[in-house]
Specification:
By secondary structure, the protein is mainly alpha-helical. The chain has two domains: 1-57; 66-120, no CATH class. Helices cover 63% and strands 4% of the residues. The protein has three helices and two strands, in the order ααββα. The chain has a two-stranded antiparallel ribbon with strand order 1-2. The longest helix has 55 residues, at 3-57. The chain starts with a helix and ends with a helix. Bound molecules: zinc ion.
Length: 138
């Protein structure tokens, strides 16, 4: 057997080994991806259980989850407050009957027809003291 034949065999053998390793790696990655997918599935269901538990127990939270319940409630309050700010900036309000966003100026809701409480449209401009005026004062 010549040295070249041997070399050729070695290269071929090495190539097969690389291919085999690549195949194994691909297999491992695929399995790891499946593991991640299953973990995500578990997380989703944990969240679902948590949400259902919160909904069912929000009026009487157990001591164990009291802190988490309070954090959730604080966030709900913040969301309400922020949404009101957004509505004020968008010059809309929420229909108390169907929760549809309607213009502040409508008398009846365009979606459900409910009569809207009269709201005074706040003007966005607030009177601020003039910077120059302060200069004159001093
Ligand atoms: Zn409505």
């Amino acid at each position: 057997m010549s040295i070249f034949e041997n070399l050729g065999k070695t290269i071929t053998h090495g190539g097969k080994k690389v291919a085999q390793t690549a195949k194994t790696l691909t297999g491992v990655w695929q399995l790891k991806a499946k593991v991640i997918s299953e973990k995500n599935n578990i997380e989703e269901n944990y969240k679902e259980i948590g949400k259902k538990y919160f909904e069912a127990n929000k009026s009487r939270p157990s001591d164990e989850f009291k802190e988490s319940f309070e954090k959730i409630n604080t966030s709900f309050d913040k969301i309400t407050q922020l949404e009101q700010e957004i509505h004020a900036m968008e010059k809309v309000k929420v229909c108390p009957s169907c929760n549809e966003k309607v213009s502040r100026t409508v008398v009846f809701c365009p979606k459900c027809g409910a009569k809207q409480e009269e709201t005074t449209v706040r003007t966005e401009t607030t009177l601020l003291p003039c910077q120059n005026q302060q200069l004159y004062l001093f």
